[in-house]
Predict the 3D structure of the following.
Amino acid sequence: MIGTGYVGLTTGACFAHLGHDVVCADIDVDKVRRLQKGDVPIHEAGLEELVREGLESGRLSFVVDSADAVGDADFVYLCVPTPQSGDGSVDLKHLKAAAAEISAHIRHGAIVVNKSTVPVGSTLLVEEAMNRPDIAVVSNPEFLREGTAVTDFLSPDRVVIGADDPAVADRVADLHRSIGAPVMITDPASAETIKYAANAFLATKLSFVNTIAAVCEAVGADVGDVLAAMGLDKRIGGEFLVPGPGWGGSCFPKDTRAIISMAEDAGYDFSLMRGVLKANDEQFKRVVNKAASAVSLNGSTVALLGLAFKAGTDDTRNSPALEIAGLLLAEGAKVRAYDPAVATVDIDEIVVVDDPYAACEGAAVLVVATEWDEFRLLDLDKISEAMVSRHVVDARNILDREALLSRGFTYQGIGRN
Ligand code: UDX
């Protein structure tokens, strides 16, 4: 495994759990040292146990140098970061560097597997960077959600393998045999497109949900009932149908922009996806406008509950909470924030405190941005005492609206008045 981020580390530890011998390499020496001691730096349910199991069984090890990892490997997984570059396209410098680095050490007959989310055509790019015509390069995209990556790997809805040579595809499929999930074998371009199309569709579903919530507010409907009834249609499905402050994370914002960029480079104007992105940016503004409709933001303090991009993770990359905080600060508001899993953010103006009531100290309005369960159990009387005026914008629809109204709060949810 080249790269030990949440994709590489999860994939490596799970493959070891399935009985394979796995060597993980990372350029971060401190990270490798910590992993060698079984100290897992990321919040993933069940991952630390699997890493420890792998270390004890001897099936999992960590090294700094890719050359050591590649040695006599039958499969070399590339799990390096593929971040978004300025113009929305994908920055592939880490992928090219990793491919060039392993080229001299990979043994004849081994297979290179692109696990990172990479644009269509990246298997060709890795082949060129390796310059080893004897080595097959395949696509095996990941469908891991942060916080549930181990479960998503061991019990996936499907395994997708993109390879030109059926025999090569079968060898990669064999790695996953004991998982027992449906295996879809296709060509590399289709496999790479499946990954982007899946994420783009999920983002589209969420932007639709959030815009239907705005329609519900306008016409006086309740988005909870509307979506519940919609979700009973099996073609729609009840999952991923919860309105919020907008979607974020390390994948959706990157992957939606990447598929637009890829399509345009190939001559197709993906205007639908631009609309999906626009609706998401508008959602952040809608949350702030709700706060502004309750109080004059300039000079006021806003309590922000939640910084992570979703509950169950400490990841604030492209977090809607931070988008909202940035807009509040731009309106001249002061922001006091609390998140059970996040202690610091890199926006200095946000005052991060270590309990939800401290965040409400002197606040004119309270905004809930992340759906942590503990926010459902807040002591509303303590909240009321701490605040200078009682206004709530519940961007996750998780607070008890009646309990708030009975205490004299104004309440604004998403799609529910
Ligand atoms: C996503 C895809 O789900 C996963 O398959 C892919 O491999 C990586 O990207 P992740 O980014 O970890 O996973 O988060 P996800 O759970 O999909 O949530 C993405 C965003 O949508 C979050 O901001 C979340 O709060 C939001 N969301 C999700 C909603 O607003 N409503 C929902 O019903 C579900």
